[in-house]
Amino acid sequence: MTFFNSRWCDVPEGVEEFNPATLAPGFRAGAVHCGLKGSGETDVGLLTCDSEGVSSAVLLTRNAAAAAPVRVCRDHCDLGSIRAVAVNSGNANAATGEQGIRDALAMRDAAAEVLGIPDEAVAVAETGVIGVPLATEAVVAGVKSAAKVLSADGGEDFCRAIMTTDQGPKQVTLEVGGVTVSAQAKGAGMIEPGFATMLCFVQTDAQIDDPDSELRRAVARSFERITVDGQMSTNDTVVLQATGSSGRAMPEGVLDAVLLQLALEVVADGEGAERAGRIQVNGAADQGEAERVARAIANSPLVKTALTGRDANWGRIAQAAGMALAGEEWNEPGPHSIDFAELGDATAEAEIAIALGRGYASAHVFFSDLTHEYIRINAEYTT
Asked: Is the dihedral of CA 137, 140, 145, 148 positive or negative?
């Protein structure tokens, strides 16, 4: 199966895909098991760029309860010159107070020391259970061990090291227009992003003059368009690193397409998910209203369970839209204004649309259904 497997994602012309374990030129990665995951799977990853002239951008969660690694990135890292990223999965290091900050800094500093680069050139990201102190000694030892297995073909090991409830790795390496892009992501639950998804890392040899603007634009069209359960993570992080060694600019639409496909994979892999949907809202009074209605529908448990059951119950769409418009004047909708294209058939991707008749603004959101398995996974998450 090719990376671009959703009909909602336009494939850039001339794309050639490679083994996703192979990183973009100039990047190496490694991963080990340090003990955070009881399964024995890799849980510490290290990603580094051999070029001193790397340009980068980092987008982080807006959650007020942001995890320690997010706060360390904000306050102690040079986000425009990130050479390396140290990551662990199994422990989010969130709601851990000042000790959590010290632990995240220790992880960052260990990576910087073993790689021989400035502390501020290392970003740190963590994911997993919230409110549990980090086993810092084990993680620091894991970071140092990961440095010993760094490889240009370490992309898949790194990608697996960042997984939690993901069913499989979300990754790609491709070339187009003389530029190589590799990317790895994780995410399956606690997904309704603010600037990012759970974790995503992108490496390229393209020349990008303004990485921050490029990343924000691509994220706005991808990770900002998804929801699994309406919950904003404490640890959302997206990192883009560009060396410029190809001497070519990033071809138009490539970063957008890569991030959108990764975002759609997060939706399709939503905890317990069986189907993905896209809600298209048209005829809103303004952009804010369109967004509000789209997210109310996408996050409605009634709509999500209808998606699971392939039940074209248009009243649930009307109710969710009306809730988002509470206090406004709105002509009562009927089935003529709601389209359930493919909701009841066998496709894994269902289209839903609603016309509000209040103006000309529109918005869309990609979302997953709600199944019994979501309840089981989250009821048993720490047990």
From this structure: negative
Strand pairing category for 199-204 and 179-186: antiparallel
Is pTM, for the whole model, over 0.90? yes
Catalytic residue check, 197: yes
Counting Cβ atoms within 10 Å, is residue 273 exposed (0-12), middle (13-18) or buried (19+)?
buried
Q: How far apart are CA 298 and CA 364, in angstroms?
A: 9
Identify the residue whose tokens are 């974790």.
Answer: 199
> Which of 96, 136, 164, 197 is the catalytic position?
197
Indicate the burial class of 16 (C-beta count within 10 angstroms; 0-12, 13-18, 19 or more): exposed
- What is the H or E stretch that residue 55 is in? strand 55-60
If the chain, 383 residues long, is cut into consecutive pieces of 10 residues, what is the mean pLDDT of each piece?
90 95 98 93 97 95 94 98 97 96 98 98 95 97 98 97 92 97 91 74 98 97 92 93 98 97 93 92 96 96 92 91 92 78 76 94 96 87 69
Look up residue 79 and give its DSSP letter.
Answer: T
**Quick one: residue 254, left, alpha or beta (phi over 0 = left, psi -120 to 50 = alpha)?**
alpha
Dist CA 262 CA 267 (whole Å)? 9
Q: Are strands 199-204 and 237-242 parallel, antiparallel or unpaired?
A: parallel
Identity of the amino acid at 70:
V
Radius of gyration of the chain (CA): 21
DSSP 177-227: TTEEEEEEEE-SSS---SSS-SEEEEEE-SB-S-HHHHHHHHHHTTGGGEE
Say how far apart CA 275 and CA 366 lie, in whole Å: 11
As given in the structure block, the two tokens for residue 374 are 């979501």
Hey, is 262 helix, strand or coil? helix
Which residue reads 């425009």 in tokens? 80
Cβ-count burial of 144 within 10 angstroms (0-12 exposed, 13-18 middle, 19+ buried)? middle
Task: Identify the structural domains of the chain with CATH numbers, from first to last.
Answer: 16-265 (3.60.70.12), 276-379 (3.10.20.340)
